[in-house]
Amino acid sequence: MAEAKSTSGLSKVLNAAWVRPFLFLVVIVAAWDLAIRLFHIPAYQIPSPGDVVAVLWSDWPELLRQSWPTTYATICGFLLSALFGIPVAMLIAGSKTVESYVYPLLVFSQSVPKIAIAPLFVVWFGFGIIPKVISAFLLGFFPVVVSAVQGFKSVDPDMVDLARAMQGSRFKVFCAVNLPHAMPAIFSGLKVSVTLAVVGAVVGEFVGSNSGIGYVMQRSIGTFDLPTMFAALVILALLGVILFWIVDRIERLVIPWHVSQRDDISFAS
Q: What is the greatest pairwise CA distance in the chain?
């Protein structure tokens, strides 16, 4: 009996959502270290995991301080993406005229590399936080719009007609039918947006900044300090994971019925 309980507990731990990615990450790091040893890759090309961990341990206060401007720009850009992206998606999904004018321009804007126009933001707004926020906003805006449009358009017209037949106003029908039905798609776009906002903030710091993780990476490249550069990449990865997790927690609070259904399907598969 005790052995069965121990086996059940071990199986529960191994099936936890965070365990498998962690184990896979351990395998990747081990393969990374093994490849450096087998092929004798010099440290000025690829640092060893031990060197990166040593930099994280010794320079952690500085890296943490530099991560704050990047985090602030990321969160501001992401919030702006949600604040403007969802209403724009509502207009596009609700009006064929707006869609014909706006949607093609949004798609066209994605073909313009943000790294190419980021210097303009520095020229227009200086070296402060605003260019980084705008860069994060531009990268995070499109996924929110596309996902939200898909969510609003996927609403069953019969459900909308039934709600209107029950003397529901346009606003009440939207709040009771359209918005709840579109929320899963909206949150899918928000999850993509928050990770892309991290990239956008770093792009802004690459172009012109004297602080932030992007600045640390640019400085490390100039001095060939690859362990510090890889440590900065680890910080960015952690930042993206944490922000993604926060959005996922919010999704579980806002639409728990969809999350529980999704989890049941994942567990069954």
A: 75
Cβ-contact 259, 267 below 8 angstroms? no
In degrees and rounded to multiples of 5, residue 180 shows phi and psi of -60, -35
Task: Judge whether residue 263 has pLDDT over 60.
Answer: no
Tokens (6 digits) for 120:
């303009």
| Closest CA relative to residue 132, chosen from 141, 122, 124 | 122
What gap in Å lies between CA 196 and CA 202, rounded to an integer? 10
pLDDT, tens digit (0-9, with 9 covering 90-100), for 90-141: 888 878 888 888 888 888 877 777 777 777 777 777 777 888 998 899 899 9
Alpha-carbon 151 to chain mean position: 19
Lookup: tokens for 227: 């362990």
Nearest to 89 by CA among 153, 145, 171: 145
Print the SS3 string covering the chain: CHHHHHHHHHHHHHCCCCHHHHHHHHHHHHHHHHHHHHHCCCCCCCCCHHHHHHHHHHCHHHHHHHHHHHHHHHHHHHHHHHHHHHHHHHHHHHCHHHHHHHHHHHHHHCCCCHHHHHHHHHHHHCCCCHHHHHHHHHHHHHHHHHHHHHHHHCCCHHHHHHHHHCCCCHHHHHHHHHHHHHHHHHHHHHHHHHHHHHHHHHHHHHHCCCCCHHHHHHHHHHHCCHHHHHHHHHHHHHHHHHHHHHHHHHHHHHCHHHHHHHHHHHHHC
CB 204 within 8 A of CB 214: yes
